[in-house]
Design goal:
It contains 15 helices and 14 strands. By secondary structure, the chain is α+β, with helices and mostly antiparallel strands. It comes from Streptomyces poriferorum. GO terms for molecular function: DNA binding.
């Protein structure tokens, strides 16, 4: 069996994840396609992940493709998490993940409505959804608060988990909007405030034509392998949230080939992708919390020293802002209240690396400008650096 070393895996990150300067593209769509999907739970992550890889980082370029061209699409998909993908990749993600997520969201909402015991049912939900869509058609776009003002049904409150310890009273507006968005009937438009805000406006959209789930999963697995291979079954299972049977069928359908890793484990690569690649020029990167290069595998031992985890992860397993040198996570960074990037190295990487990291910090500070960024999921080191 062919072996792919940890060093080769780190070289692939630099090249395939567009982190080496010579690999940087012009377009945010190219970044999204190279990584398959950008984490979007924290609105700022999309911009930070894209601009870290762009030849000419610019907020306006990302905003244009998100909100004007709509060549980048937000989807509630893998692991019931919000991602941004290209318009070309969106049908694959919708069929392989988002469709099932949307169906579960609708079932859950209907269950809560009927358990409330006030006659709220599927017909009530359908009528409310039509009223929301009509309001968006009339307005063009609206915030959740504006929709609630325009559609009285959205101001309805229900009792969730009645008679149980976790019983609580909640409004339905956010849940109805979430279901419509999950089904692709509405989409997130420009937020209130800056690009770091998650207070999105909403606008109507057209659901995509359905693809076959199994075929979509096979194609998505193939694209993922081209970006993240070699990777184990468990890595793909974690990234997608699929069952093990779905993972194995998708790998088989993609024609994935077995390789051996440095730790002796078996992993998979895309067809005819077992060969070595030349190392790019030395590179440094400051990547945001939840960046795909840090979140792409369940087992990150080949690029993340075990001793760094306590400083770089929160209690829920979310990784914070990371400093990279040639494919290895070597520290963490943050932005202080005055906008100054500050970082700490957890690995001694030498003067050349420190100089390159400082240059990346200056590049980050230049395009971020006066915007202040606080990650949604804060880690011990990020808190310490900004404290």
């Amino acid at each position: 069996m062919h072996r792919i070393s940890d060093e080769q895996r780190r070289i692939r990150i630099g090249r395939r994840h567009l982190l080496a300067p010579s690999m940087r593209p012009e377009s945010p769509v190219a970044v999204a396609d190279a990584l398959v999907a950008l984490h979007a739970t924290d609105a700022a992550t999309v911009f930070l992940s894209a601009c870290a890889r762009l030849r000419a980082p610019e907020v306006a370029a990302v905003e244009k493709q998100l909100y004007q061209d709509v060549s980048l699409v937000r989807l509630l998909s893998m692991r019931n998490t919000l991602f941004v993908v290209s318009e070309e990749t969106a049908p694959l993600v919708e069929a392989s993940n988002a469709r099932a997520v949307a169906a579960k969201e609708r079932r859950t909402l209907l269950k809560h409505l009927t358990e409330d015991g006030n006659g709220l049912d599927e017909q009530w939900l359908a009528a409310t959804e039509e009223s929301v869509l009509a309001a968006l058609t009339a307005r063009g776009s609206a915030t959740g608060s504006e929709l609630s003002a325009a559609v009285p049904a959205l101001r309805t409150r229900i009792t969730v988990f009645p008679g149980k310890k976790q019983e609580t009273v909640q409004g339905v507006a956010s849940r109805v909007i979430r279901v419509l968005a999950a089904e692709g009937r509405i989409r997130r438009d420009r937020p209130r405030g800056s690009w770091t805000s998650s207070q999105f406006r909403w606008t109507a959209s057209e659901p995509r034509a359905g693809l076959d789930t199994a075929r979509a999963q096979t194609e998505l697995a193939l694209r993922w392998l081209r970006s993240y291979g070699p990777a184990a079954e468990g890595d793909l299972k974690w990234w997608t949230g699929w069952g093990l049977g779905q993972v194995r069928r998708a790998l088989a359908g993609a024609g994935a080939e077995e390789v051996e890793l440095d730790n002796g484990a078996t992993a998979w690569v895309a067809p005819q992708d077992q060969g070595s690649e030349p190392a790019p020029e030395p590179w440094a990167a400051l990547l945001p919390a939840l960046d795909p290069s840090a979140m792409g595998w369940a087992d990150r031992g080949f690029h993340l020293p075990a001793g760094h985890r306590a400083a770089l992860f929160d209690r829920s397993g979310n990784i914070g802002p990371t400093v990279w040198w040639n494919g290895l996570i070597v520290g963490g960074w943050a932005l202080r209240a005055d906008g100054e990037p500050v970082w700490r190295l957890l690995t001694d990487v030498g003067r050349d690396a420190s100089t390159a990291i400082e240059a990346e910090a200056s590049r980050l500070a230049h395009w971020v400008g006066e915007v202040r960024i606080t990650p949604r999921f804060r880690t011990p080191l990020e808190r310490e650096l900004t404290g």
